[in-house]
Amino acid sequence: MNDFKIACSYFWKYLKQYWVKMTVMIVLTLLATLFQVLAPIYMGNAVTELTKFVAQSGSSSAAGFMANFYVALKWMAIYFLLNVIAQFIAWMIMSKFNADATNNMRRNLFAKLQRMKIRYFDTHQDGKILSLFTSDIDNIFNALNNAIFELVSQGALFIGTIIVMMSINVKLALITMASTPFVLIIALVIMSKARRSLDAQQDEIANLNGYINEQINGEQVILSNGLQQESIAGFKKYNQRVKETMFQGQFYSGLLFPLMQGLSLLNLAIVIVGGIWLIVADAVNTAAGLGLIVMFVQYSQTYFQPITQLTSIYSSIQLALTGARRLAKVEAQAQEDPVPDGQVLTGLKEEVALNQVHFSYDKGKEILHGIDLSVPKGQMLALVGPTGSGKTTTMNLFNRFYDVDSGSVTFDGVDVRKLTLESLRAKVGIVLQDSLLFTGTIADNIKYGRPDASDEAMVNAAKQAQIHDFIVSLPDGYETQVSDEQSIFSTGQKQLVSIARTLLSDPDFLILDEATSNVDTVTEEKIQKAMDAVLKGRTSFVIAHRLKTIINADEIAVLRDGHVIERGSHADLLKLKGFYHDLYTNQMVLD
Amino acid sequence: MQILKPHFKRYWGSIVGAVVSIIIVAVSSLMQPRVLQYILDNLLKNDRQAMFHDGIVLVALAVVGVLAGITNVYFAARVAQGVTSDLREETYRKIQTFSLSNIEKFSASTLVVRLINDMNQVLNVVMMTFMQVLRVPIMVIGAFIMGIITIPRFWWLQVLMFLAVAVTLGLTFPQLGKMFSRFQKKLDKSNMIAKEAMQGIRVVKSFNQQENEETRFNEVSDEMNDLNIKIGYVFSCLLPAFFLICNLGITAVVYLVGLNVENNPGELAAITSYIGYLMQMLYTLAFGGMTLAMYARGTVALRRIKAVLDTKPDLVFAKDAPEVELSGDVEFKNVSFAYPGSDNETLQDISFTAKQGELIGIVGSTGSGKSTLAQLMTRLYDPTAGSVKVGGVDLRKVNEKSLRQAVALVLQKALLFSGTIADNLRQGKRDATTKDFKWAAEISQAAEFVERYDDQYEHLVEERSANFSGGQKQRLSIARGVVGKPKVLILDDSTSALDARSEKKVKEALEQKLTDTTIFVIAEKIFSVMDADKILVLDEGKLVAVGSHAELLETSDIYREIYATQRTKEALDEGEVLENE
Question: Membrane-spanning residues where (chain B) (predicted)?
Fold first, then answer.
């Protein structure tokens, strides 16, 4: 129930600004339903008048019946027309505000994601976050389009029919509705069965997908070991399971429609039999009883229509509610604090420091146990240590991707939490290990941090980053379209582009996570030069893997299990004959 | 559709079941207004006997309708599942006959999409065919005929309304189709932006680019919204238009009956059932139109699958080649190679020989063609010119099984498959025993960590082998390469993630235990192959020098140069160490 409330308040949040349109649309839908019910009554009247006309044919009153027929026919036509017009306007209004509301959900979701803390992205899979866009918003849009209209019109039809039936004959009305609970139970049982089979089906498809993905991406191994037959044998197992579960899913979800149709017909038979029984048992006047049955034959069908329709949109409403709940959950996530009233960081004058920093991702599992480090202006600090020692974690603290549990990170003695987030990040540059290219031109990518930079400045940055020559060798030069997936750039070259990006934005303090990937000697040379260029004259903090980088550092800090265990220059640390010495003589296999 | 045809044969029983049951469903729906008409007639006539009889017929119709409906769903799902899973298997089998370049041409990810998403589209189409599409013509024609039987003189009205609905649908659906495909493209674009903004969230944040990203996304989102509204408007017109046609038809029927009621009083009783047939015809037609739109998506999917099935494997092993035991002699004779679709020759006129048991080093920078050379030796590709021989047999004429037994390739990117360690090792030798595993794992230095697991070689390899470090993966991958005791073993930079000590141990073990095997070691750095019997130096696809380390230092300028640069760096570091000590 609570979940339901969350979903509803999410919908309300986005729909409330359209309340006028929504009211108009609902009123129009109710009117359309009313006209839809009225038209057949006038049709019945028209037929009655015609019957009378035929019976009285030749007598003087005949002309009057004919005139009545035309009046009834006129009203029937008018109600038909009004029904269509009301529907048309209701749908036009609805299409617009549904689309707009969905658009707002989509835009807000993206904006929210841009403002959320890094922790969310580190703890949630990209694919799952993306499915908010690809499936949840889509489900909501579809449901809004179908469900709102159907809920209103079919709900009105359902209640209206019950009221009319009860006002005509309570007993026959009860007979008409008697089977409804059973029908609903059958429908619910089938739907829940269908849902379970569909879930199982999704799981099996995911398994098959995983298998195929792994096999085809590993085709080189399959081919060079001649494993094609084995691969097919494995495939058949997964394929068979998909076949079985999908059969169940399709069978159960396909059952609902024919079943409801058949039940509607059976109910009709019950109504007729019940009507005849009433005539006999209650000794109702035969003529009146017959008229009653004729009417209830119609009403029984009108009564069943909403049941069939509503059960068929039930699953789409379910999906929309689930989607709204997920989206509401994301909207409730903590946001980064931009510190709007904070101090503006204009430049680094003395030093960047970590003071007694304790940090944990999960409470109770501390990763950094009181770290003290400082980088004086213009100097380079290299951080080395084995996997899991806390290097990346430390890096995450400078520009507030994460905040410390206790202790502080300071720029010229000012705690980063007291600086405006924008000014902090504008002064802190970061070159990550896995460099990412955005879809767009190479120029877009280099100018990413400073879209207003001149082409001259861009070329200059590319030259310093040793990537200019390669870019101009491409047919479209800087205007070449790139994306992260396509392979114009090798991993090493991507890193060069991201160094150029950072050079152009000219940060005061630089964080560099050196790539560990294997590159050839030539590229390695280029990366080295590019790094020299970007590090020159800058205060920097480098997670170092290459020996040369480490040796060039002004100070080296050795991190192990969340403690800084050794600090000093390369020479100092070697003399210590400690952990660093071990690492070094072991040929610096750090990752 | 023709790619589905052969698969239908296997399910002819279910197909007959689905077709027969859908016909029964359609016929029972068509009979329903008629029976109701009889009941009302008899009610008015107060003929209880007949009414009772008709009531039973109505119940029977309902029961038959439900049963036939369920039977139809059952058989339709059977056929749809059977046919698509067979087609999926056929497609997968086809992919397994592909060469590496076939697969690269499609790209692995599109192949996966075709096998899963496209196949699901096909499934929906088949399911629809046997549930609805067959029903549509029966119902439309049946209702049309029943209508004419009920009130014959209105035949022209029926034709008119049929045409009105058909024309309305015919005019709007193609437009809608175009809008939907435009929407799909926008959706893909917005997903791409969202995906990049997720994956690059650190970059976005550190460059303060949140607002620009939002603008970029909102632009596409607004375009999507415009299309959504347009599509909504089209539907807002289409559906009322359809109801308008229906309502006009009903009004016309009542009016026309009234106009001539003196001459045809019998038509009065028939109005209800006549209108019933009219509606059955029009609703089924509209429904048929909707399914047609789904069909369009399905045919696109079928075409994409057909493209896979129609692809000719561009590398086929000679079927009649006898299975022989190949020796470890390798010979390249004037081999040139260009990747399909590329004009640049990755390898140019390469000739060399390697004798069984030799250790051959191959060095050169990235892009010099080292890995390509390895791929030619395992016949993942054929050379564009010249010939590659293993054990004296040209690879174009070799028996596939013989080659796979003789040559093993270990890649730099150690690919393990989910399953157990044993499963992965068995890929190198199908009937390998635990003894073989141990032997191979000891050579590759994998034994030291594998044998620490309680379940040892039955230890699970998770998806993306996430439970192993880079170094462990490489050691297992090397074990897979050596377990079959190949005559030729190619290590393509496959010790890059190992520390120097382990790398040395692996090398020593290989030399001691695989004395009979020709070993190729591909490396960036000369130091890794200095002790080889022969070193091949590649530069931009050309074999620029061959010889032992000592010989090359004498004869090859390029080799000397590379060695010098790599050495100075090392020496510099080395020197500093000494200096500091």
Answer: 12-31, 51-75, 122-149, 155-176, 233-257, 277-296
Where in chain B are the domains?
5-309, 330-580
**Which residues is A351 bridged to in the sheet?**
A376
Element (H, E) at A555: strand A555-560
CB A442 within 8 A of CB A478: yes
Instruction: Tell me which amino acid residue B330 is.
Output: V
Which tens digits make up the pLDDT trace of B194-226?
A: 888 888 888 888 888 888 889 999 999 999 999
CB contact (8 A) between residue B207 and residue A449: yes
Q: Do B5-309 and B330-580 share a fold?
A: no
| All residues at 6 or more sequence positions from A467 whose CB lies less than 8 Å from its CB, including other chains | A493, A496, A497, A499, A500, A526, A530
Share of residues in chain A with pLDDT > 90 (%)? 28
C-alpha Rg value of chain A to the nearest Å = 36
* Percentage above 70 pLDDT, chain B: 95
Q: Kindly list the distances between the CA atom of residue A268 and the CA atoms of A285, B58, B59, in Å, as whole numbers in the listed order.
A: 22, 8, 9
Q: Is the dihedral of CA B123, B124, B129, B130 positive or negative?
A: positive
Whether the CB of A519 is below 8 Å from some CB of chain B: the reply is yes
**Cβ–Cβ of A239/B92 closer than 8 Å?**
yes
Question: What CATH class has B330-580?
Answer: alpha beta
Which one, of A386, A332, A351, A389, lies nearest residue A516 by Cα? A386
**In chain A, residues 254-273 whose CB comes closer than 8 Å to chain B:** 254-255, 257-259, 261-263, 265-266, 268-269, 272-273
Which of B30, B43, B230 best tests the A interface by mutation, with the highest count of A CBs <10 A? B43
Nearest CA in chain B to A241: B85
Q: Would you call A209 and B428 a contact, using CB atoms and an 8 Å cutoff?
A: no
d(C-alpha A355, C-alpha A231), whole Å: 56
**Rg, Å, chain B Cα set:** 36
Q: Is A118 in the B-facing interface, judged by CB distances under 8 Å?
A: yes
The superfamily (CATH) of domain B5-309 is ABC transporter type 1, transmembrane domain (1.20.1560.10)
Task: Give the residue carrying structure tokens 């189709």.
Answer: B177
Distance from CA of B237 to the nearest CA of A (A): 6
- Is A247 within 8 Å of B400 when comparing Cβ atoms? no
Partner-chain contact A265 B65, CB within 8 Å: yes
B281/B246 Cα distance (integer angstroms) = 10
- Tell me the ipTM for this assembly: 0.84
What 3-state class would DSSP assign to A379? Answer: coil
What number is the average pLDDT over the span A368-386? 89
- The residue length of chain A stands at 591
- CB of A181 within 8 Å of a chain B CB? The answer is no
Domains of chain A: 351-585 (3.40.50.300)
Q: At what angle do helices A286-331 and A137-168 cross, to 10 degrees?
A: 160
> Please, which pLDDT band fits residue B579 given cuts at 50, 70 and 90?
very low
**pLDDT at residue A485, as a whole number:** 61
Identify the DSSP state of B468.
S
Supply A399's token pair.
Answer: 């520009």
Residue B258 and residue A205: Cβ atoms within 8 Å? no
d(CA A419, CA B171): 61
Q: What residues of chain B, 12 to 41, have a C-beta less than 8 Å from chain A? A: 25, 29, 32, 36, 39-40
- Which pLDDT score, from 0 to 100, does residue B461 have? 82
The span from the CA of A116 to the CA of A113, in Å, is: 5
Residue ranges of B 421-450 with Cβ closer than 8 A to chain A: 427-428, 430
Helix ranges (DSSP H) in A56-136: 62-115, 118-123, 126-131
Buried b (16+ CB within 10 A) or exposed e, B329-368: bbbbbebebbbeeeeebbbbebebebebbbbbbbbbbbbb
* C-alpha atoms less than 13 angstroms from C-alpha of A348 in its C-beta half-sphere: 28
